[in-house]
Amino acid sequence: QLQLVESGGGLVPPGGSLRLSCAASTETLDYYVLAWFRQAPGKEREGISCITSSGGNTHYADSVKGRFTISRNDAKSEVYLQMNSLNPEDTAVYYCAASRFSWVCRGAVSRSDYHFWGQGTQVTVSS
């Protein structure tokens, strides 16, 4: 079973940047579509970005478009989320996820399309 572990979360002031990483163990990520989700207190988990197995296509939710960038390094079995221009509304627990479905990541990032999840990393944007 694929296992995912996120890292890189923390406290950052408004306008700051963070880079989240997600490393896979037990197998490589080559054939998985990968995504990042986040969940703020009292809110549902939101899909914010995904990247296809080839890395050729990405998708971003409107809430993060132009500020966040997803990337992957299959040689290291890692996926990343570069987050810039952070604001307090970005405060949440961030999760990486992997999907066996090659056809996802063509639109909205849907929780039901993803089979494996990390444990999450907290991102807090506050002065």
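the 2nd protein, sequnce then structure:
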Amino acid sequence: QGEVVESGGGLVEPGNSLKLFCATSMSIANASVTSWYRQTPGKQRELVASITRYGLITYGDSVEDRATVSRNIAKNTMWLQVNNLKAEDTGVYYCAVGDKWGQGTQVTVSS
């Protein structure tokens, strides 16, 4: 199996935006779905956004109006932008390519 690596996390003030990146050595085009999940304190891991092989995009309820996900099939990369960040967006964000997960990147929303 290949590797999935997330980047772009950090400390962000409430109301600002953050863009996360996912790079993989695998073929995104061959994956049935590529996804962003997050693990926030006290909650179960939840879907943030996903893109199916055919380009169907789904957003999680908690970010639906604030997030944009996109991918570059040729470069095997995917990114996620979340706008108007809130304290409850704090957590570890994971990229998944099929059933292969990265190690996650920490996002902390705080003033």
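The mean pLDDT is 95. The chain is about 0% helix and 50% strand.
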